[in-house]
Amino acid sequence: MTELKITAKKGTGFYIRAAATFLRGTDEKPPVPSVILSGTGSATTTVVETAHAIQKQGLAKITRVETGYPTTGGQSTARLAVTLTADWPFPDPSSYCNFDEVRVESYALDLEINFEKGILQGSIELELLAIQESSRLVLDTRSLSISRVTADGASASFQLGSAGRKSEALGEALEIELPKKLSPGEKAKVHIEYATAPDAVAIQILSPEQTQGKKHPYLFTQCQAIHARCLMPCQDTPGVKSKYTAKMTAPSPLTVLMSAVPEGEPKEVDGKRCFYFTQKVPIPSYLLAIACGNLASRRLGPRSHVWSEPEAVEACAFEFSNTEKFMSIGEKLFGEYVWGIYDLLVLPPSFPYGGMENPCLTFVTPTLLAGDRSLADVVAHEITHSWFGNLCTNRSWECFWLNEGFTKFGETRIMGNMNGADYEQLLLRNDCLKLSEDVALFGPEHEFTKLCPQLKGVDPDDAFSGIPYMKGELMLRHLEKIVGQERFEAYLRAHVKRFSGGCLDENDFKNFFLEHFSSEPAVKEVDWQKWFYGRGMPEMPALHSTLAEKVELLFSSLKGGYDGAAEDIKDWFPKQTELLLDRLVDYAREQAAAGKAVEVQGRLNAWNEAFGFDSTKNAEIRFRWLMLALACNDPSRVDAAIAMAQEVGRMKFTRPLYRELIKEPSRLPKAKTAFEAAKGSYHPITAKMVAQDFAKAEAK
Ligand SMILES: CC/C=C\C/C=C\C[C@@H](O)/C=C/C=C/C=C\[C@@H](O)CCCC(=O)O
Ligand SMILES: [Zn+2]
């Protein structure tokens, strides 16, 4: 055991560097039992914060912190026991970069959007901090054209994809030789001139005809999970966080927005507009976001605006008017909102997800515009990422559930605060159904049904499903039941404080939870292994919702031959109708498997007459209704299902619609033709994933 003495007067940054240098300098390379860092200072908290900061930066795992002994002359002291684990420094299977040696602390983008060429072109300047002695910088890239690299002003040589670091899933590593060897704690600047590729997976460019206004082109990005490397050379791992600034140039009169705070008004130069942004809170690369188009905004609250094409902006302002309420509940539950502004951008229908939690500027799909605010729970979800994901970040995509499970929990709790505990239980019921559907889709023995799957050699897009969301939420509900709601909510606030600004994996979470509840014997019974690495369905909670019971009653009546009437559901929440349709889809599938699809099919027109499903404005209901029609082979609604799949690029809807369409072999050619026709209007991620679904179905 080696001991390092540090004195607590220079602030946390000093300690991180001192500790990093020390850890790297020691002979005790992993696996080692532990290294003791001890500090004496007027503020013990500085030493404790240091411990946490060291861990957040992935330098080591803190196994024990002892403070306040012995107290001499009014000065408190602290000792930190630090374990370098065998897998130190926490490899990320989805990145090639050498973030264990050198870290990007901040970067400055200077990019011009060229709609004619379909590219972004310009430069990035990276500010590096050496963690250990190193003379190279390895960054992630994918299909970037790199024209020039300089390091601290001197030309630097570089190679793309060298040493076999090139693959379909991960892109091509960019290795830059630094002109001088950096010592731990030393800083350097690397400047890279580059352009993106016209087929970059992170970027979708819409022609004017593809927009609502039909006059101007539109560009938007989606970086999660590992697409930031198509936009810029970067350390594309959620384990590294950097601040950024950006200067973005676009043709007049278009507006550029980013996942950052805008600085001042745009400057007009030669028919172009320059926009400036600053993101002062360090963020992982996957949270970089850019949008550019003919955009208008409306104020939603003291710190929020909603943006969209001008044609839809009033409808958007109505739909998301509860934003500030959601934020206030989030702050009460999880702590201060640190990002300054919270704006929403409503994207064109090809946006591949319901929402993306880009800091300061959540991106959302227009399929949330139901006209009655009933789908704004996605906004509550994205707001919750302001704490879980954006502040406390999964260390790699293998523990994505730490972003999504916590956020799903928070979303459901916020919606419960809005609409009552019974409603919260209804949402959980819906989530349990979604979980069992997603587990069934992969098969219960599949690696991706684990809360923490292994992703070596895997494209994270292939592993994505509702499982980390719902299974993660259920695990947290299980823990909440053990310790009680009030204590669990206090835990969540402590968790945010503890991991804020850093990253964590499932063991960091487990250790902190056990430390927090060290005097609670019941938590010792938790089967962490099973929750984290067990396949298939987890233990289901007992749920009590009168709202869900009403759904079950109507479901039974409909199954029993009752045709339904509008008043049956007139006081319902739309989430109850979603549950009813989910239950009917399952029923239709069972009947179809028993050769009785036609019996369900014969009931659809009556149900439509009663409940008006064919004309619903709610995309979740429309989707489920069409899935029901497809499940019972209703030929009269195939065109409507195809129309939804073609119009909406949100994968939650598009992929299941195509998958259900092609389950029936006679519908395959029509579905294929529809996909080929719509493919060009989809986001590259959606086009890639739907093409894979077709390939799988055709291979069967
Ligand atoms: C265990 C899972 C492994 C890796 C997943 C990591 C990233 C997945 C990647 O494909 C990106 C996901 C982006 C998600 C963005 C928003 C979602 O919350 C939307 C959910 C679906 C929807 O509402 O449309
Ligand atoms: Zn999410």
What does this molecule look like?
This protein has 21 helices and 28 strands. Strands 5, 6, 8, 9, 13, 16, 18, 19 and 20 form a nine-stranded mixed sheet that branches. A five-stranded mixed sheet has the order 22-23-24-26-25, covered by helices on one side. Helix 6 (401-419) crosses helix 9 (467-483) and helix 13 (546-559) runs parallel beside helix 14 (574-593). The chain is globular, with a radius of gyration of 26 Å. The chain starts with a strand and ends with a helix. Bound molecules: the ligand CC/C=C\C/C=C\C[C@@H](O)/C=C/C=C/C=C\[C@@H](O)CCCC(=O)O and zinc ion. Zinc ion (ZN) is lined by residues 357, 381, 385, 404, 407.
What ligands does this structure carry?
A: the ligand CC/C=C\C/C=C\C[C@@H](O)/C=C/C=C/C=C\[C@@H](O)CCCC(=O)O, zinc ion
Round the Cα radius of gyration to an integer and report it. 26 Å
Give me the oligomer status. single chain
- Largest sheet geometry: 9 strands, mixed
* N→C terminal distance: 58 Å
Count of strand segments: 28
* SSE-based structural type: alpha+beta
- Provide a count of the helices: 21
Helix content: 25-40%
Question: Spans of 5+ residues with little confidence (pLDDT < 50)?
Answer: 7-12, 26-33, 68-76, 84-88
| Shape by Cα distribution | globular
Average residue-wise pLDDT: 91
Q: What fraction of residues sit in β-strands?
A: 15-25%
Keywords: Cytoplasm, Hydrolase, Metal-binding, Metalloprotease, Protease, RNA-binding, Zinc
InterPro entries: Alba-like_dom_sf, Aminopeptidase_N-like_N, Aminopeptidase_N-like_N_sf, ARM-type_fold, DNA/RNA-bd_Alba-like, LTA4H_cat, M1_LTA-4_hydro/amino_C_sf, M1_LTA4H
Organism: Durusdinium trenchii
Subcellular location: Cytoplasm
